[in-house]
Design brief:
The structure holds 2 protein chains of 2 kinds. Chain A is of the alpha/beta class. Helix content of chain A is 47%, strand content 17%. The chains are: A alpha/beta, B alpha/beta. The interface between A and B is large, with 37 and 40 residues.
C-alpha cells in the first residue's frame, strides 16, 4: 500500500461533514417539506445514537433477537478450489436472513424515541421490507412497505412474510416498477406526513443523515468480522469483498477496515447482461455524477440527466444510484469497485451452495464472483467475503434460471 | 433601464393585485399531452395566466402526485429534453405574454450544466427557476449562476417550515415565495382551513416579494378562500388535466378568476 492510500484511509474515516458531504458527494436534496424532518432526525441521532441507553437496548436486541454476533465460517472447499484462504461473514444467519435487520431494528428503536407513530420503508429484494416489518412488530409500530410491482412478483416469498409480520405492502407500478420507484413512493408518503411518520430507509443512500446513520448501524458487521479474523487467523484479511447495490452491507463491512491500509476492499456491483445503459446496475463502474433521491452521487443516467432503468438478476442490487460514501471511496481510491455479471453471480451461487452447503442470496453471490476472480490472480490470499444474505427468497428466479439448467 | 427577469415576475403578480385580482400562476408539463402542441398550449396559457411555470419532465418526480408524474413520464416518452424546451419557450416569449419560469428537479439542470444554463435560459426569455428538490442550504451554486442573469430562483416554504427558518427563506426570496399549502405532493385537492390562511399571513408578513399559494388548487372556491391572504395561486395538476382532456386552458383559467 502506498502512503497516498494510507492518507485516503485516514480521510475516509472522518466523513461526512455536518452537511452530510463525503468529499463532493452526499448532501441533502429534498423538498422543503422534509427539511425539518431531516433536522429532527439529525437531532435524534445526536441525542440518542451514542447514548448509553440507546446503545444498551440496540446491543441487547442485536444479541438476543437478531442473533449476533453472526458466525465467521472458514470456507474450506472454496479455499481449496480457489487456491486461497476464504472466510465468510455470515449475515445470512442473522434474523430474517440478511444484514438488513441490523439497520431496521436500529432505526426502529430510534423512531420510537423520536415519537413516530408509524414506520414506512421501501424494499427491492424484500429483505429490508421483511426486516422493517419484523422490527416494527417487535417495537410495536405499524409498518407500510413500498415495493416495485416487478419485485413483488419476483420476490413473492418475502411479500408473504411481510404480511405475516403485520406490514401493509404497497406495490408500486410506475417506471420500471423496481427499487427506485419504491423509494420515490416512500418519499411521497413521508412528504404527506413528515411529523408522524418515520422513514426507515434500507440502504446507505438518500439525503443526509441517512447514509451516515445506516453506516453506523451496519458497521457492526465489519467490527465483528475484523475481531473474528484476528482471533481465528491472527491476522487481517488481504482483501474483503461485498456486493454493492445501495451499498449498506458493503459500507458496514468496509468501514471498520478503512484505516487498515493493508486490507484491499472491493465492492462488487451488478454487471447484469452488459455494459450498456439499462443493461446493468453498476453505478460506480458505469455511472456519472448527479442528484438522485436526496444525494449527489454516481448514477446511471442519460445525457439529459434522466435516471435510467437498470437490469440485474438480483432485485436487491437493481438500483440506478449508490450510497454517496461509496462514490467518495471510489474517488479517493480506498475501495475498488468492479462488476460481476448475472451469469457470473449465478455460477458463484451454485458453487457456494454445492461446496459449502450455504445458499447465498443472488445479491450476495456477486461478492463471491468478485472474490473468486481475485483469488485467481492472488494465490494463497486470505479473503473475507460479506455473506450478506441467504437465497431462500430467490427460489422463484432460481427455479427459472439455474434449476432449469440443472434439470 | 431594463427590468431584471426576476423583477418582471414580481411585477406581473403585483399588477394583478393592483387590478383587484389574485394572480394566477399556470403550470404545464412541457410536451404533454402532445409534443407538437406544446408551443400552442404554452402560448394559450401565457395569454391567460399572470405567470407561467413550464415543467421540465424528470424520471423521479418525488414531490409530484399522480397527474404530474403521468405527464412527466409521457413527456419523456415523447422525447422531451431541456434543450428542446428552451427552443420552444424562446419561440413563445418572442411574442410577449406572461413571464415564464421553468420548474425542474435539479438533475436535468446539472446535466445541462449550471455554467451555461443561465445564459441559455435568459436568451430563451425565461425569467427564473423553481427547483423542488433544492433546499435553501444546497442552492448556493445555482443561485449564484442565476443571479448573473438576474433570473429568479423561487423559494418554496411549507406549513412545517419552522418560523425562524421561514423568515430566513422569505427574506432572501426573489420573484415570489411559493407557499406550499399542505404537507404532501402536488395535485390533491384540499380544503383550505383557517390555519392554512394564518400560515399564509405569516409568510406574507415575512416576504418582501409576492406570495403565491400552490399544491392542490383546483377551484374558484379555493381561490376565493386564499384571496386577501396571498398575492397569487399556482394552478398545476388541474391545468395539466384540462390540457390532457383537450379543453381550452383559457376558459379554465378564466373560470378561476
Amino acid at each position: 500500500m502506498t502512503s497516498a492510500s494510507g492518507a485516503a484511509a485516514t480521510a475516509a474515516a472522518s466523513v461526512p461533514d455536518r452537511r452530510g458531504r463525503f468529499g463532493p458527494f452526499g448532501g441533502r436534496y429534498v423538498p422543503e417539506t422534509l427539511v425539518a424532518a431531516l433536522d429532527r432526525l439529525q437531532a435524534g441521532i445526536d441525542r440518542y445514537l451514542a447514548s448509553e441507553d440507546f446503545q444498551a437496548e440496540f446491543r441487547s436486541e442485536l444479541a438476543t433477537w437478531v442473533g449476533r454476533p453472526t458466525a465467521l465460517t472458514h470456507a474450506l472447499t472454496l479455499s481449496r478450489r480457489w487456491g486461497a484462504d476464504v472466510w465468510l461473514k455470515r449475515e445470512d444467519l442473522a434474523h430474517t436472513g440478511a444484514h438488513k435487520i441490523n439497520n431496521a431494528i436500529g432505526q426502529t428503536l430510534l423512531a420510537k424515541r423520536l415519537g413516530a407513530k408509524r414506520i414506512i420503508a421501501e424494499t427491492g429484494a424484500g429483505q429490508h421490507g421483511v426486516a422493517s416489518a419484523a422490527a416494527a412488530a417487535r417495537v410495536g409500530l405499524p409498518c407500510t412497505v413500498y415495493m416495485g410491482a416487478v419485485d413483488v412478483e419476483r420476490q413473492a416469498p418475502n411479500v408473504g412474510r411481510m404480511k405475516l409480520l403485520g406490514a401493509t405492502v404497497v406495490p408500486v407500478t410506475s417506471g420500471d416498477a423496481t427499487l427506485r420507484v419504491a423509494i420515490d413512493e416512500a418519499l411521497r408518503d413521508w412528504v404527506a406526513d413528515p411529523e408522524g411518520t418515520y422513514y426507515s430507509i434500507g440502504s446507505a443512500v438518500g439525503p443526509h443523515p441517512y447514509p451516515y446513520l445506516v453506516r453506523e448501524l451496519q458497521s457492526v458487521i465489519g467490527r465483528e468480522a475484523r475481531a473474528q479474523m484476528l482471533e481465528r487467523t491472527g491476522a487481517l484479511p488481504d482483501a474483503a469483498f461485498a456486493c454493492v447495490g445501495g451499498g449498506s452491507n458493503a459500507i458496514g463491512l468496509f468501514h471498520p477496515f478503512l484505516e487498515d491500509a493493508g486490507v484491499r476492499l472491493v465492492g462488487i456491483e451488478a454487471g447484469g447482461r452488459g455494459q450498456g445503459l439499462g443493461d446493468n446496475a453498476a453505478s460506480l463502474t458505469y455511472g456519472t455524477p448527479g442528484v438522485l433521491q436526496g444525494s449527489y452521487t454516481l448514477i446511471l443516467q442519460d445525457e439529459h440527466g434522466q435516471v435510467r432503468e437498470t437490469h440485474s438478476v438480483s432485485a436487491g442490487l437493481d438500483y440506478s444510484g449508490v450510497g454517496p460514501e461509496h462514490a467518495y471511496l471510489l474517488r479517493t481510491g480506498r475501495v475498488a469497485y468492479e462488476a460481476a455479471s448475472d451469469a457470473e453471480a449465478l455460477d458463484a451461487l451454485v458453487e457456494c451452495a454445492r461446496y459449502e452447503g450455504i445458499l447465498p442470496a443472488i445479491e450476495t453471490a456477486h461478492a463471491f464472483a468478485g472474490a473468486r476472480r481475485y483469488a485467481a490472480s492472488h494465490p494463497g490470499a486470505r479473503i473475507l467475503i460479506g455473506c450478506s444474505g441467504r437465497g431462500d427468497k430467490d427460489m422463484p428466479i432460481l427455479q427459472r434460471t439455474v434449476l432449469e439448467g440443472l434439470a | 433601464m431594463s427590468v431584471a427577469p426576476h423583477e418582471a415576475v414580481s411585477a406581473a403578480i403585483a399588477a394583478a393585485r393592483k387590478g383587484g385580482r389574485t394572480a394566477l400562476v399556470g403550470f404545464l408539463t412541457a410536451g404533454f399531452p402532445r409534443r407538437e402542441r406544446f408551443r400552442d398550449d404554452l402560448a394559450a396559457v401565457a395569454a391567460a395566466a399572470d405567470v407561467v411555470e413550464v415543467g421540465v419532465p424528470f424520471s423521479d418526480p418525488m414531490a409530484d402526485g399522480t397527474t404530474i408524474q403521468r405527464a412527466s413520464f409521457a413527456a419523456l416518452a415523447n422525447g422531451v429534453t431541456l434543450p428542446w424546451i428552451l427552443g420552444e419557450v424562446a419561440a413563445v416569449t418572442a411574442t410577449g405574454g406572461a413571464p415564464i419560469l421553468l420548474m425542474s428537479y435539479l438533475n436535468p439542470l446539472l446535466a445541462y450544466g449550471l455554467e451555461r444554463l443561465p445564459r441559455a435560459a435568459a436568451a430563451a426569455g425565461i425569467a427564473g427557476f423553481i427547483v423542488p428538490d433544492l433546499p435553501f442550504e444546497e442552492r448556493a451554486e445555482l443561485k449564484a449562476a442565476l443571479d448573473r442573469e438576474g433570473l429568479a430562483l423561487v423559494q418554496m416554504v411549507t406549513p412545517v417550515t419552522p418560523r425562524e427558518r421561514l423568515e430566513r427563506l422569505c427574506a432572501d426570496a426573489r420573484g415570489f415565495v411559493y407557499a406550499v399549502t399542505m404537507t404532501g405532493t402536488t395535485g390533491k385537492a384540499a380544503a383550505v382551513p383557517d390555519d392554512v390562511l394564518a400560515y399564509m399571513d405569516r409568510v406574507r408578513a415575512a416576504a418582501r416579494v409576492p406570495v403565491c399559494a400552490g399544491f392542490g388548487i383546483r377551484s374558484r372556491e379555493q381561490v376565493d378562500r386564499f384571496a386577501g391572504h396571498v398575492d397569487g395561486v399556482v394552478v398545476g395538476s388541474a391545468l395539466v388535466e384540462v390540457l390532457e382532456r383537450g379543453e381550452d386552458p383559457r376558459a379554465f383559467l378564466a373560470s378561476l378568476r
